[in-house]
Amino acid sequence: MKTKICIAGKNNIAVNIAEYILNNHHNVDLVAIFNKNDDGKNGFQRSFKSFCYVNDIKEVSLDDIYNEKELIFLSLEFDKIIKPELFQTTELFNIHFSLLPEYKGMYTSALPILHGKNYTGVTLHKIDRGIDTGDILEQVKFDITDNLKSEELYKLYTTHGIEVIKKNISSIINKKYSTVAQETDKSTYYSSSAIDYRNLKIDLNQTAFQIQRQINAFAFPSYQLPLVHKFEIYNTEILSEKSNIKAGKILRDELFFLDISTIDYNIRLFKDLRKTLFNISQEGNIEKLIEFKEAKYEITQRSKEGWDIAIIAAYNDHFEFLDYLLKNSWNFNTSNNNGTTLAMYLMTRASTTSDISYLKKFLESNDIDLSITDFNGKNIWQYASQYGNEKVINLLENYK
Q1: Range of the domain at 78
Q2: pLDDT band at 2 (very low <50, low <70, confident <90, very high)
Q3: Domain match, 159 and 129 both
Q4: What is the mean pLDDT of residues 35-56?
Q5: Cβ distance 20 to 33 under 8 Å?
Q6: Last residue within a domain, chosen from 190, 205, 228
Q7: Do 123 and 247 lie in a common domain?
Q8: β-strand partners of 34
Q9: pLDDT tens digits, 83-113
């Protein structure tokens, strides 16, 4: 009899664990429950719903599985509170993005940064009737560096969370795991009212370190960036000069940054100029790009669709601009939020125009991995076949 595993949740962690179970545990009946806000489209993170549809993983509801006695339930960023008493199984597990018993509840990608913590972690635990209070199977602790942003922290949580589950899934399936109860020492909980994301305000009447941590805690470009003096800020640098005027005053206002005073040291706040950066790549303006590089602006930033400036340049036929990036160590296997690679964009352009010159040059000059599949499971040869351009198909046949 197959073990039934239900993954309830969202994003890369749910996708990666589902994929791992499919590939490594064949005697499993895998089903899924999706979060309400999963619209089936890949965004900042992959859509769990889309992945399950592509891989024929059955969607179920909580009501469908309450009476399953031989069930393993994995909550991976699930958006509902689980009531264990409604289940016929006790094999209920959750991955929580904090080092429990600290930071039970909400906003674990912001609060540890905001509070000046120098560490956090992920916790795999049983689900009981409390909020993140269940007994612990395993934890991983890692550092929070001074300038770590909330989006970067979220990605670290996801990476470590995936590894913890992969490490423990066999023992969970075989019921050979052990747990320890959570301690009361350092136990904290934060509800949805702990941060009002609709009304974020940076308190400038603080030290440079505190202001930096506020900026970092709310810098999650896929959703929001903090505002200071009407500018969106994506990064900070604490300067060596001590402040000698009232905290929060503008000392210097330049194109790329804003210097302000604080309680102790001046701080540099870097303005978010992604729209300008993307326009530069859309226009193929290498001179402007060099200005951004010389100002040490982070030119690897992406749009909400996952487009970087190489993809934008390719889409707009600015191949001289693209060549400049590739000669300066750009990732030539870059892809967007759907897994569409730069090579796929160039193949599409060649297929629709019958001009294979740049695609040929791109393939000859770079070590391109054409075996990469997008999140629909298709590679460049399959898409080229759909377009049916014989010149492109014949070119790509040389690289099989």
Answers
A1: 3-190
A2: confident
A3: yes
A4: 95
A5: no
A6: 190
A7: no
A8: 9
A9: 999 999 999 999 999 999 999 999 999 999 9
pLDDT of the residue at 400: 85
DSSP assignment of 120-180 equals EEEEEEE--SSSS-SPEEEEEEEE--TT--HHHHHHHHHHHHHHHHHHHHHHHHTT----B
The DSSP result for 213-270, as a single string, is HHHHHH-BTTTB--EETTEEEEEEEEEEEEP-S-TT-EEEE-SSEEEE--SSEEEEEE
CATH number at residue 117: 3.40.50.12230
What is the distance of C-alpha 86 from the center of its chain? 33
Number of folded domains that form the chain: 3
190, 225, 257 - which closes a domain: 190
> Token digits for 80?
């509902």
Residue pair 267/276 in contact by the 8 Å Cβ criterion = no
CA–CA separation, 68 vs 76, rounded Å? 19
Across the chain, where does the E strand assignment appear? Answer: 3-9, 28-34, 58-59, 71-76, 92-96, 104-105, 119-126, 136-143, 189-190, 227-228, 231-242, 250-253, 257-260, 265-271
